[in-house]
Amino acid sequence: MIENIDITKETSGQLLANDPEYVRLVSHISDLWDGAKNKAVYAVNAELINANWQTGQYIVEFEQGGNAKAKYGDKLLVNLSKDLTRLKGRGFSRSNLNYMRKLYLAFPICETLSHKLTWSHYFELLKCDDPLEMKFYMKECIKEGWKVRELKRQINSSLFQRLALSTDKEGVLALANEGHQVMSPADIIRDPYVLEFTGIPQQKRYKESDLEKALKTNMEQFLLELGRGFAFMGRQYVIPIGSRRFKVDLVFYNAILKCHVLIDLKRGEIKHGDIGQMNLYLNYFKNEICQPDDNPPIGIVLGAKKDELLMEYALQGIDNQLFAARYQLYLPNREELQAQLDLLLDNSNE
Prior knowledge:
There is one protein chain. The chain is an alpha/beta fold. The protein contains 15 helices and six strands. It is globular and about 80 Å long. 24% of the residues are buried. Mean pLDDT is 91; it is low at 1-5.
């Protein structure tokens, strides 16, 4: 087994440590073995995915072979699990076999499977009953490199339904086929934002500063909820104007849109004055902070509630990219959101 070599004076001597040719040699060999390990992992994963798919194919073809149902009834997977576990060991539970069967039914053409995903990814994807939803999460997984934990969180927070309900039928189909595209400021807005990871109980009285601290503590998950391209810049960002000092709760930079994103948190309902205050912050950023190659900043006032008509009038006539959106401290009801989405698609067919 080849171990990592630390090129230091103590291990190699002054001559080797300062020899660029030798340092390059070690670097090339190290890179070679890193690449070999990555290729080996990819190859093993590809074989496992193919074996799972083919197992599902064998099961489905056996079921379709005639009198299998009469002979085995609902006990086929139970018996198969027992026999395969006896022969091959772990990995052949009834649940696993059922999902292998689902894998084949969902992807009847093996070439449509992506080997960039693991079996654990597919296990979660196959829990989606809606084919459009499954395609969306698969695209996002590949594009964003989500780990299984991140995929589970996005499914549980109903990301697909939340994004889909803000568009029309064509937008829903594009979402499923292409994933979430960030091309304009409106594309980064979610309503509601789901912040269940903060751990703040829904009924508990809390301050805006409590929510702000919780978001900073759980920044990795908050960035996942915000979406693609976000980098955290600061909390309680000071804006000095004249003799006064204002503070923006959270400031980010979005690398895709090439602009700053300012977020102000409101514990209760968003008020029209909150919109005016955010507009002030955006004007300051445009004139004092943004660089010549930056696009205009985006402002998001994030509150627990909002009155749609009030926000419509409050935002009217504002030239800045300013949005009012809701957040919730609990996971949404996926069944209710899916029912709304189904209704949207059904009405689009009329």
